[in-house]
Amino acid sequence: MVRSEELNLCFQKLVMFGGELRKMQGGVIAEWKDIPMELLLRIMGLVDDRTVIMASGVCSGWRDAICLGLTHLSLSWCKKNMNELVLSLTPKFKNLKSLVLRQDKPQLVDAAVEAIANNCHDLQDLDLSKSFKLTDRSLYALARGCPNLVKLNISGCTSFSDIALAHLTASCTKLKVLNLCGCVRAASDRALEAIADNCRKLQVLNLGWWEDISDKGVSSLAYGCPDLKALDLCGCHRITDESIVALASNCPHLRSLGLYYCKNITDRAMYSLAANSRFKSKRNLWQQPSKNKYDDEGLMNLNISQCTALTPHAVQAVCDSYPALHTCPGRHSLIISGCLSLTSVHCACTFQSHRAATMQAH
């Protein structure tokens, strides 16, 4: 099987050769313009995005086909001149549904995001993570031009305000996945209330290091976003048990909860999670069984690292209530690092292996 690196190299040579042919034949390449669009796009799917962009310049036929058919693009490989590349490409690639602009060294500026918003109105998935040069101008532009966003990653964008974020959510009401980790200037209860009011379909939300939010904001999320499946509250040290009680009571689909360094969380929160699981189990006895096997598993990931106020009995109650939580090697989904008092907490696998070992010994 040909490796992707070899395929990219061969295709790049083909692109370069095409340029020479155009010079020799006056820009007429009969063999290439007859390639069916479907076949060309299938070939594009086998090479990297840099090569796709090169191929769009081979001839007008290829350019039109790629511009029409390209729906997913990543420019994370671009180490220099990303803004210029975005400005030149977005007027051509207007059918983009997914665009990744994640950067190691921040380059992106508001003008580039405005170009995206002005041209890519069908965009559903956008990754702008680590773009701390961006300002509220970018969020206002996205609100105006990209109302179909379903997934947005603006983690590490430290200049966005809560007002601009609220404005974005008022227009992008289809959001299901939202990564706001490290958006410290936007971190407020007002922003969370706007998300709860506008994004009722939200399923995944990362609020890592939103240190200024309180139970008021998280509780509004619990009431406004009942479809939440994953919520990361790491570093949100002001929240208390009230937030977890609200989530346990109102978000029945919650599968992943991050509470790293939430030191005000106590046993009451754990018992609330455990009680919610037992209630659901009893209710399901007379309800029609779910078609999705995961619907009955409840919490599958729980991070309570550095939550030093918790006791083993309360955490064990949660572990016993949710069979998908594991402490066994290779399957750690109940993360308790930094909590020395919780070393006695174990999942059912540990007891089963101990029982099996005992039976074999006898």
Automatic annotation (TrEMBL):
<dbReference type="InterPro" id="IPR032675">
    <property type="entry name" value="LRR_dom_sf"/>
</dbReference>
<dbReference type="InterPro" id="IPR036047">
    <property type="entry name" value="F-box-like_dom_sf"/>
</dbReference>
<dbReference type="InterPro" id="IPR057207">
    <property type="entry name" value="FBXL15_LRR"/>
</dbReference>
<dbReference type="InterPro" id="IPR006553">
    <property type="entry name" value="Leu-rich_rpt_Cys-con_subtyp"/>
</dbReference>
<feature type="domain" description="F-box/LRR-repeat protein 15-like leucin rich repeat">
    <location>
        <begin position="66"/>
        <end position="276"/>
    </location>
</feature>
<keyword id="KW-0833">Ubl conjugation pathway</keyword>
<dbReference type="Pfam" id="PF25372">
    <property type="entry name" value="DUF7885"/>
</dbReference>
<dbReference type="GO" id="GO:0005737">
    <property type="term" value="C:cytoplasm"/>
</dbReference>
<dbReference type="InterPro" id="IPR050648">
    <property type="entry name" value="F-box_LRR-repeat"/>
</dbReference>
<protein>
    <recommendedName>
        <fullName>F-box/LRR-repeat protein 15-like leucin rich repeat domain-containing protein</fullName>
    </recommendedName>
</protein>
